[in-house]
Design brief:
Elements lengths: L20 H9 L16 H14 L1 H12 L2 H11 L15 H23 L1 H5 L23 H15 L2 H9 L1 H41 L12 H16 L1 H4 L17 H18 L5 H17 L4 H18 L8 H5 L9 H22 L13 H5 L14 H20 L8 H4 L36 H4 L1 H48 L3 H56 L3
Helix pairs in contact: 1-3, 2-3, 5-7, 5-21, 7-12, 7-14, 7-18, 8-9, 8-14, 9-10, 9-12, 9-21, 9-22, 12-14, 13-14, 14-18, 16-18, 21-22
Length: 591
């Protein structure tokens, strides 16, 4: 899933682009001749907005046509052009990163990894599934421990769940820790608001995306390989409606990821109901333990995690609980180098940035991160034969141990879950990197472009003053780069859209290339049996090169289209849904 941002609270911490952004800027900057432009419809009062907008479009359609075209272009194309062509006198300060911005970047990287996983699994399923060193394995570079992590969809889903447990609880926990009468007044509205918005935030984008899939598939049939196409639109929408109700039946069909009800119109949305179910769990725990001593709260949450883990085998609920515990820990023991008041005033041992303790902390966090990445690369099958995984396979608890002859999926999610927790904890408590100024300026961290308006957030990802790279925790740097932050912004959209783009674009290329690869393998076997090993090797190599070339040439346009669609979906739909959920809460709540 984004998730699991997406995807789950796949993309709630940050928003970069206002959907009306391009249209407003075009109206202000389009006329280079100095002539007065038409009045902007966004500046009119609500009573006259629609007639004025229609009249302006009819009188002078060019600005609106241009603004529409710019809006439909991806922001990674338009925004650099805007920045480059902006007048020299105009200065727009780029907003800086908040204390949990690195989690957005990590979530974005995880969403991209999910796309890589599903796309490469289609073409190279045996390589993706088999463990390095297992009998019959191809033993490629991509099967090596740690390397495998960067193509593991299971690891990304575990990462989504830990991040979600953290970001949807940190704001409420921060209020609890402040204490005092004002804190008591803010606590319940904050928790209620987060809980109220959560189902809209998770399900509405999923419903919109599957509705679009249903309509497009019925008219054009481009998703027929994964979605059933019915003879008329009414039948298609009726089927979509029933499947949507099935997806919303969170507490019946989606108890754990085992035997989960996979949505027909987008199979990758199986994580969304699990995200909501476990969001309800952590919100309930926040409410139950809001007024108790904090050690009792942590022990209670840990007890719940232990119970669901070892009695139900529900690793997903446990990961949410651990995300909540980690959020509590960052408030009790503020990490050094984090942006925010807590770390700035901390006088604990963790606040030291020099001496032996500083280097010991680097060693512990880096070692933990490496171990976490190793465990997150746990193979999907033949793991008991894989180097570096035999011991933890033997340590797998009973609820996760596979039945004889079955695929060891339980062992996989157990080990990968531990790895995700280790890695995120290591990044959280990583010591800041100290680099000379002439080196640190070459690391492009920060929010891409100059977007300052953010969407709704239940996390603590607030904008702060500029933070130098020397103050950024070392292990968080890859997740605070501009590319990672962009991925974090589109992570939910990327998660929602990637399966449909693969079906519409990539599957056709795969089904064309696969028969040729199979024929090449058969020819190589025949040549081998006829005593021509050299010719067999040459035939196999030629077939493999052609198959790999088809994969690469299919990947490039598909990935570009995926980013384009995800970017537009994030601005046109996802950002507006965030605004809608906030508006609904404002209208629904009592004073």
């Amino acid at each position: 899933m984004p998730q699991p941002s997406g995807s789950g609270d796949l993309n709630e911490s940050h928003r970069l682009v206002d959907p009306d952004h391009f249209a407003r800027d075009v109206e202000e900057q389009l006329d280079s001749s100095g002539e007065k432009l038409l009045p902007s419809p966004w500046t009119q009062n609500n009573s006259s907005r629609r007639p004025l907008l229609l009249n302006n479009i009819l009188r002078n359609p060019k600005p609106y046509f241009v603004s529409t075209v710019l809006f439909l272009l991806p922001s990674f194309v338009v925004e650099p052009i805007r920045t480059y062509t902006a007048s020299s006198g105009s200065t727009t300060r780029r907003p800086q990163l908040g204390p949990t911005a690195w989690l957005d970047g990590l979530r974005g990287i995880a969403a991209l990894t999910v796309y890589f996983f599903h796309w490469s699994m289609l073409w190279f399923d045996k390589i993706i599934m088999d463990a390095y060193g297992a009998p019959g394995s191809a033993d490629t570079f991509f099967q090596l421990p740690i390397v495998r992590t960067f193509n593991s969809g299971t690891a990304s889903v575990a990462t989504f769940f830990v991040i979600s447990g953290y970001v949807i609880t940190i704001k409420t926990l921060t209020i609890i820790h402040k204490g005092g009468p004002q804190s008591n007044e803010r606590l319940l509205p904050t928790l209620c608001g987060a809980f109220f918005r959560r189902p809209f935030r998770l399900f509405v984008p999923a419903i919109v995306s599957t509705f679009m899939i249903a309509v497009i598939n019925q008219h054009f049939g481009i998703f027929e390989r994964s979605v059933r196409r019915l003879p008329d639109l009414n039948s298609q929408l009726s089927d979509w409606y029933n499947e949507t109700l099935r997806m919303l039946n969170t507490f019946d069909l989606h108890k754990t990821r085992y035997g989960v009800a996979v949505p027909i119109y987008n199979a990758h949305l199986w994580t969304i109901p699990i995200e909501f179910k476990n969001s309800v769990l952590v919100f309930m725990l926040l409410l139950v333990f809001a007024k108790v001593r904090r050690w009792i709260h942590m022990m209670g949450v840990f007890g719940v995690a232990w119970c669901v883990l070892f009695t139900q085998g529900d690793i997903d609920a446990a990961l949410f609980c651990i995300g909540l515990i980690l959020a509590e820990m960052t408030l009790i023991f503020p990490p050094t180098g984090q942006r925010g008041n807590a770390s700035a005033t901390s006088t604990t041992y963790l606040a030291r940035t020099d001496g032996l303790g500083y280097w010991i902390r680097h060693f512990i966090t880096i070692a933990s991160a490496i171990l976490g990445l190793h465990l997150m690369g746990y193979p999907l099958q033949d793991n008991v034969h894989a180097g570096g995984f035999q011991t933890i396979s033997e340590w797998t608890p009973k609820p996760f141990y596979p039945e004889p002859g079955s695929v060891p999926y339980g062992q996989t999610v157990w080990s990968i879950g531990i790895g995700a927790v280790l890695y995120i904890t290591a990044c959280t408590y990583s010591a800041p990197l100290r680099l000379p100024p002439h080196l640190s300026r070459w690391i492009p961290t920060g929010i891409p472009w100059s977007q300052g308006k953010r969407g709704d957030s239940d996390g603590a990802a607030l904008l702060h003053e500029e933070t130098s790279i020397q103050q950024t925790p070392f292990l968080q740097i890859p997740h605070t780069t501009r590319f990672a932050q962009y991925l974090g912004w589109v992570s939910f959209s990327l998660y929602l859209c990637h399966g449909s783009v693969i079906t519409a674009m990539g599957m056709g290329d795969y089904y064309e290339a696969k028969p040729a690869w199979d024929q090449g393998q058969e020819l190589a076997q025949q040549l081998e049996l006829s005593g021509q090993p050299v010719a067999a090797a040459a035939a196999l190599e030629m077939a493999w090169d052609a198959y790999l070339s088809s994969f690469l040439w299919s990947s490039i346009p598909q990935t570009i289209v995926l980013f384009w669609i995800s970017d537009v979906f994030a601005r046109a739909i996802d950002a507006n849904i965030v605004k809608m959920t906030r508006w609904l809460w404002v209208k629904a709540k009592t004073d």
